[in-house]
Amino acid sequence: MSRREKGMQPRHPDCHRVLPRLSACIATALLVAACQVLPERPRAAATYDLGTGERAALAHGLAPARVAVSSPPWLQTTTMHYRDARVDPGRRRAYADNRWAAPPPAMLGLVLERTLGAGEGGGCRLQVQLDEFEQVFTAGERSEARLLARFALLPVRGAAVIASASLVVAEPATTADASGGASAFRAATERLALAIAQWIAETDRALSGGLGIAGRCQR
């Protein structure tokens, strides 16, 4: 072989082994960089409910035949609402990472059915209008669960109101956050259910002959 041919030989005979390693390093670096710019997975929302309620001491014959709960559109979602009366009392706000397991009217309906023994007796139809259901921050770190409801007893098959009433329940929250608000709403809902049970019993005593006379609830 001539000197010229010897001079043309490659000076780095191991390049074919170095290049794949270099390519692998570059690919790894690109992968790490891509992982760093990917958005973080959103945090799962905490979910709360109102429990199922405990059976109240309501006479079997006074237990509502049915319970129906209605509400304004803004309460027909799982959004947890709160209001900061310290800063902007006219503004309704919502917790970002917390929600109800079901819309408040549905959860309230379940508690009322269980507490009042709905369907167990031959009582009237109970219609409830839930007008407000929000946590209100009043001063400092203090807040309370506020619940406003109107309710009426009607015949099972009729539309004539036999008796009606309304109630505002305010239950202090133990902590100034969604968890404290949820616990306060559990207590407020229980208080409302027991108050309605007492109201049904008082209505029965106040009416001449009671709710069962002349088929008042079955018309």
What does it look like?
The chain has helices spanning 3-7, 15-37, 104-116, 178-206, and strands spanning 46-48, 66-70, 79-84, 93-100, 125-139, 142-154, 163-172. It contains 4 helices and 7 strands; from the N terminus they run ααββββαβββα. Residues 1-8 have low confidence and may be disordered. The longest helix has 29 residues, at 178-206. It has one domain (46-218): ABC-type transport auxiliary lipoprotein component (Rossmann fold). With 219 residues, it is α/β, with parallel strands linked by helices. Strands 1, 2, 3, 4, 5, 6 and 7 form a 7-stranded mixed β-sheet that branches.
Helix percentage: 25-40%
Query: What is the helix/strand order?
Result: HHEEEEHEEEH
Mean pLDDT: 86
Can you summarize the main beta sheet? 7 strands, mixed
Q: Would you identify the regions where 5 or more consecutive residues have pLDDT less than 50? A: 1-8
Q: Which structural class matches the secondary elements?
A: alpha/beta
CATH class: Alpha Beta
CATH superfamily: ABC-type transport auxiliary lipoprotein component
Number of domains: 1
For the CA atoms, what is the radius of gyration? 33 Å
CATH topology: the name is Rossmann fold
**Secondary-structure arrangement, i.e. CATH architecture:** 3-Layer(aba) Sandwich
Note the beta-strand portion.
25-35%
How many distinct beta strands? 7
Shape: elongated
Offer a few descriptive terms.
219 residues; alpha/beta; Rossmann fold; 7-stranded mixed beta sheet; 4 helices; 27% strand; disordered N terminus
